[in-house]
Amino acid sequence: MSWDAARLANRLKHRHLALLINIAAHGSLTRVAAATGISQPAVTKALAELEDIFGGPLFVRSGRGLLPTPLGDLALVRARHMQSDLDLWAREVEALHAGHSAHLNVGVVPYVSSALLTAAISRLHQRYGVTLTLHRATTDHLVPMLRRHELDCVISRATSTVMLDDLIHRVLYRQRPRLIAHSRLAQRLARRKPDWAAVAAMNWVLPAANTPTRQLIIEHFIRAGLRAPSPVLEAYSTDVIEGMLTMNESLMSVVPEDIARELCQRGKLGMLPWDFGWELPPINLIRRKRDQVLAAEERFSEILSELCGDGALPEGAVASAAGNAVSTPRG
């Protein structure tokens, strides 16, 4: 039996998207019925209607419940993207009704300076009336959210895992790593020549092992012929790092220099002048390729480039010569 592509445009409704996503999440029509407050016969009928639209089965029964067929997998990818786009669309409409011009959902890694973010967000709203929701997480969480259309753009480190053709990267600025510790410990260590062996044996708060920063720290100590530090805590939150180092004089950590300067402003922490001899992967604005560019997203990109190019970077950040270049690196 031939399949007519017009079925999708003519018959597919938003409730079908929600049904697809719910079945994949719950793995059972009974659980979908309980979660949505719809009778199971109604859910069964809706699935049959959906499979008629697509011209084939979307799920098969297994010992682990209902699993998507290849046709179901394809439908789920599109359904999730469409649902995310509808959610973002709703936020934009809500912003317009509240008197704003647009709304952006932006993902940001923890080691992006709050001074830069607040300046960019303030300019975006003052100039264009755009509101913004920030989502803080690591690169490995944010980039998949961007690809699922849950975010409009991401401020993050560009690594080989995200350098793919479906994304656009704009280098904003670079960062140098710096050691930080309780102010008394930092003062004692600063009187010495750099002694990596001594600090390697200390207690540490470090980012998780799968992050670019942690990998570079491990490689630094290995190149020096030393065993990499084993952290007592893995954390990316600057609030947690500051709290731990303030309470415990035996702890060390590594953060970007601009972040280190922000953390040391209150006088409880100190930054060591030791030079690691390398830079962290650059901070990038990462966006999806779109057929039609979002005006608010483009304005946000322009403001970030403006801030990173006119001397408004936080102290300790390194302006990039490629700051205004848009690149689409290949894998």
The CATH architecture designation of the largest domain is 3-Layer(aba) Sandwich
Measured between the Cα atoms of the first and last residue, the distance is 40 Å
Count of separate DSSP helical elements: 13
Unreliable residue stretches: 321-331
Main β-sheet: number of strands, strand sense, barrel status?
7 strands, mixed
**Average pLDDT rating:** 85
Number of strands: 14
Assign the CATH topology of the largest domain: D-Maltodextrin-Binding Protein, domain 2
The CATH class name of the largest domain reads: Alpha Beta
Beta-strand portion reads 15-25%
- Radius of gyration, in Å, reads 24 Å
Q: How many structural domains in the coordinates? A: 3
Quaternary structure: single chain
Instruction: State the secondary-structure class.
Output: alpha/beta
Helix content: 40-55%
Order of helices and strands: HHHHEEHEHEHEEEHHEHEHEHEEHEE
Q: Could you give me the name of the CATH homologous superfamily of the largest domain? A: Periplasmic binding protein-like II
